Amino acid sequence: MLSERQMMILRAVVRDFTNTGVPVGSKALAKQLPIHVSSATIRNEMAALEEQGLIKKTHSSSGRIPSVEGYRYYVDHLVKPDPLRPNDIDVIQSSLGGDFHKIDEIISQSATILSNLTSYTAFTLKPELKDSRLSGFRLVPLGKRQIMAILVTDSGDVENQTFDVAGDVDGEQLEAVVRLINDQLVGLTLPEVLRKLQADIPVKIGQYLQSPQGFLDIFGDVLTRAAQERFYVGGRLNLLNFSQDSDVDSLKSLYSLIDKTDDIASVLGQPSDKISVRIGNEMTNDALQNFSLITATYDVDQHGQGMIAILGPTRMPYSRMLGIVGAFREELAKKLLDYYRFYDE
Amino acid sequence: MLSERQMMILRAVVRDFTNTGVPVGSKALAKQLPIHVSSATIRNEMAALEEQGLIKKTHSSSGRIPSVEGYRYYVDHLVKPDPLRPNDIDVIQSSLGGDFHKIDEIISQSATILSNLTSYTAFTLKPELKDSRLSGFRLVPLGKRQIMAILVTDSGDVENQTFDVAGDVDGEQLEAVVRLINDQLVGLTLPEVLRKLQADIPVKIGQYLQSPQGFLDIFGDVLTRAAQERFYVGGRLNLLNFSQDSDVDSLKSLYSLIDKTDDIASVLGQPSDKISVRIGNEMTNDALQNFSLITATYDVDQHGQGMIAILGPTRMPYSRMLGIVGAFREELAKKLLDYYRFYDE
DNA sequence: TTTAGCACTCAAACTAATCAAGTGCTAAGA
DNA sequence: TCTTAGCACTTGATTAGTTTGAGTGCTAAA
């Protein structure tokens, strides 16, 4: 249990340290705090806070910095999200105001906006229904020897891939394959389709194509891409700003993590209604020990739930960041609702 | 004019320095050189080389390092490309040996291989005909309100983009627009198409669509993408290894340069038959002052000419790198010829 | 419970001393 | 004329020692 005064001190330590990056000493605090006490008193209180593991020293005679637990307490109990700055509002309005022709443009643009506002790295995921289902498959012949495979899901995701075929393209064969897939697989969830693709489908396709393997490769490829959550990243380069003493290796593993599409879901974690903050070692990933991750979901009614996130140093100004993330999720949801309303109704 | 002995010394200085990164002194050279002279003699020769601007000191009593002019002389007159190591050959064979379904897979894979072999950053461009022409355009309706626009050029490039439309999709309108484009624009070079797109096409399309602007945006978009040379990058993270004293700003501008699609052509420069080496300030771009760029073209007969390149520190082992680039361009050309032969004939 | 005072700690900044690698120059030798 | 041994000199790196300043914990008095 913390006393009022201890909370006040903890809050001040976090605020000061996140702003300046310098450990905070008792004298500076005494001068700054609204109550009138001496630095010695502050020292006593700080010792108590340290006892509880909320703040720590960088060396035996240094000022204090927040521990991970201290940040956590601050985020859970003390922080109040800052309201947006007028300038921030302008940025959002103007970047999100234009005309868009597809959801993905809005989502990818959002990642850029978020990274600009925060000067950290931002992630965005489009609204996604729980289990999206295969809703259509096409094979479009292009030119002489080229075919484009297109896969559509019921949540509107489209994946496509072109590939070359040897010999002439037989229109009837293509049609037969497309019909087969649409008959047998449309309506199933993508994992189900993947499972069937390993089982009975190859046999059936063998009836129409003499060498189905190539085709199955392509189809499987497009399918896995569609099953993976596509996410957008903004401001990747901002990570460079926080590479303390230029630790190239950890930077590299950080970037590999970000670029590995299949890992991002596990990093961002489960959606939850609240805005979630994970701090340093609260994330299991080694590369993220000095970072904090703020994630938030946004709802677009029947179109499902999406996610936005920002990744910055543990030592980030949480009140401002929480304000930005909170406000932006609202703006994005609003924008998407408008978008769906325009195209769907 | 350099004497035989001076050449020998210059060669040794470059070789030593590129291998170790440490300025090369007269004593070490005297011990290492095949001829038997004292370090004092070497010092005299080095003074002569410095006089000519080919080598320089890092401070008044240091060993010598090559100047940009020294590297240039070395590359132009002294270097002999290393033969590939057996291990390198294995890497190429196994990474390029698999089955590919499209040119782009081979080209993108090549960027990865090159970066692995060199541990630098690699670029690859697919073989490109001089002025590729529009050879086909489609609008494929997907689901309720989604359309995919597909553009094909006569060199086999495919660009596509999906977009949403408000209101019901009118199949006849779509067909009319597609027919219009195919009638009026197929066969023209892409710049010509772009020009027409600003001029008479909008009027004509206005006859079929009540609000053509959205469509024109999309079409223009796909068109510009198709007109830009698509290139692949391998080993971008390797640039981090050479950020001397973690100069974040110059790293950032380096990455922005690499990611800006429209600038890369100007960076890579004009194709030429030879393998070209550009060193440090021979490139005008500020961000590249400490880098060297090796570019090489490769020919795939009637399918045009492509390009590969590697970007590494000025202080790179040129003989090995030239060997790798030289050998790889051959391998790649061979692989592509095989590929075209399989699919085209 | 608060606070003035004091002894103590530690990182950072600065100074001085030493070392090793290298240079240019001179003068003697081939 | 070219080569080379010898020597004085320069410089960056490393190490050890000092000083400074911000900060701490503890004690004893208010």
TrEMBL record, chains A, B:
<dbReference type="InterPro" id="IPR036388">
    <property type="entry name" value="WH-like_DNA-bd_sf"/>
</dbReference>
<comment type="function">
    <text>Negative regulator of class I heat shock genes (grpE-dnaK-dnaJ and groELS operons). Prevents heat-shock induction of these operons.</text>
</comment>
<comment type="similarity">
    <text>Belongs to the HrcA family.</text>
</comment>
<dbReference type="InterPro" id="IPR002571">
    <property type="entry name" value="HrcA"/>
</dbReference>
<keyword id="KW-0678">Repressor</keyword>
<dbReference type="Pfam" id="PF01628">
    <property type="entry name" value="HrcA"/>
</dbReference>
<dbReference type="InterPro" id="IPR023120">
    <property type="entry name" value="WHTH_transcript_rep_HrcA_IDD"/>
</dbReference>
<keyword id="KW-0346">Stress response</keyword>
<dbReference type="InterPro" id="IPR036390">
    <property type="entry name" value="WH_DNA-bd_sf"/>
</dbReference>
<dbReference type="InterPro" id="IPR029016">
    <property type="entry name" value="GAF-like_dom_sf"/>
</dbReference>
<feature type="domain" description="Heat-inducible transcription repressor HrcA C-terminal">
    <location>
        <begin position="104"/>
        <end position="321"/>
    </location>
</feature>
<protein>
    <recommendedName>
        <fullName>Heat-inducible transcription repressor HrcA</fullName>
    </recommendedName>
</protein>
<keyword id="KW-0804">Transcription</keyword>
<keyword id="KW-0805">Transcription regulation</keyword>
<dbReference type="InterPro" id="IPR021153">
    <property type="entry name" value="HrcA_C"/>
</dbReference>
